[in-house]
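User: For my dataset I need records formatted as: sequence, then structure tokens, nothing else. Please produce one.
Assistant:
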Amino acid sequence: MIPLSILDLARIREGSTAREALDNARDVAVHAERWGYKRIWVAEHHNMPGIASAATSIVITHIAEGTKTIRVGAGGIMLPNHSPYIIAEQFGTLAHLFPGRIDLGLGRAPGTDQLTLRAIRRPPEAAERFPQDVLELQAYFREAEEGQRIQAVPAAGTHVPLWILGSSNFGAVLAAELGLPYSFASHFAPDYLLPALALYRSRFKPSGQLDRPYAMVGVNIVAAETDAEARRLFTTQQMSFTNIFRGARGLSQPPIDDIETYWTEVEKAQVQRMLARSIVGSPATVKAGMQALVEETGADELIIVSDVFDHRKRLRSFELIAEAWFG
């Protein structure tokens, strides 16, 4: 049975605070550790009122301090927003605080809009240097060489495992060329999933980190006691994606009884395309959907988004998913 992991969006709900979102992410990790999940990641997003994980390395610290064995990491750090040197310092520090438990997933997109990108003080063309920046970052995590004048203290020798994240063919080719594990964001970009995985596997070159391809597939899963209840809980995510198309990125909203009253036909088509690989239902429905996804993709691991409004029901969703998968 392949491993399951969690991508926590650190969503700020209507009527709650950023602190509650961060504590809820930590609570998910505490429970996930007991339920057998392998890792929990948080992602870098900026200028989004509904997401509390902008300072990603700090959020990772908060989660890791509350857990003991589960791997904790970034899914991911948007490297064009940063100096590789600074990221090496941050994640090298995390590796010393939580040995053997830190992952560093790297993305090429800015994780924000162009106006916010200017506030970050990084030029838009920084994304063009992504492959070189990944290599530079990788070098900082190796043992320091004699006479090396620039070291990212305390990163040297920590060998923090790097992942390449992607929602198109670019990341697949880069991950293959560098011999790194690859995580595909099919939880919001399902169209390129199969072509990207095929490219990654066909072009993979073994490296010091990895001797064979390792592909993790992102998937939205909402589980509840019944299919009907799960579909109702899923309306929170459907509304969130609808709001993206409206240019209204707000707080997480409670579920509604009839999603058809919320979106237009055009919005419905757009959202359904982005959420096409979502798995929503009772434990039996969820297990069948997961088995089909793994069979179709050959995934080595699934990383799950369960964007449920109520924290207790989100915990229950992750618990039901684990029970359905691991038995």
